[in-house]
Amino acid sequence: MKKFWIVLIFSLVLSLPAKALDLSVVGGLGFTKPSGDISGTPIVFSSNTAFGVGGLLGFTANWLLTFETGLLYMPRKFAQPSFSDVTLTTLQFPLILRFQFVPFFSVGVGGYFAQGIGNVSTTATGSSTSTDVDYATFNLSKSDIGLIGSAALYLPVLPTMSLLADFRYLLGLKNISLASTTTIRLREFQILFGLRLSY
Hints:
Elements: H1 2-15, E1 21-32, E2 35-38, E3 41-42, E4 46-60, E5 65-73, E6 76-80, E7 83-102, E8 105-124, E9 130-133, E10 143-158, E11 161-172, E12 182-185, E13 187-198
Antiparallel strand pairs: 1-4, 1-13, 2-3, 2-12, 4-5, 4-6, 5-7, 6-7, 7-8, 8-9, 8-10, 10-11, 11-13
């Protein structure tokens, strides 16, 4: 039995292509528009634009499949009736299974975990001054979890280097409101651009 596992692991290692590791440095835009309600009455949200940066790491399983993870510093900004801007500064940890049928394009599905850092930055409607408020005081959870859909384009510039454009949609599954009568789930569209190095 031990020999079987040794042979299996050895075969999997040998089956990996020469370029089995991808490292990407990215920056991009995030557009967050939550959905929610208070006691069944919908809350009217609108999206604001945020800028984020981060790194992605991909492990190629075979010619078709790549497992991708990473770390993104991506604020989530939106507006609601009482506030012209609400900013949740978050660290996002995505985990995506990518299908790359052709060298220059891939689609991916997976999930993410997001953790808020610092405080919630708020700007009241009609004001130009922002105020930092603790997450608990603002009745919001610091963590979020959800699903990701992704479509990415790659433009080779060298044999081991490509320009990257990644279009992502994040569907929050967790109710991040701490108020018993309120439901808020985050929805976010991201456009990431960067440089991918293949090893």
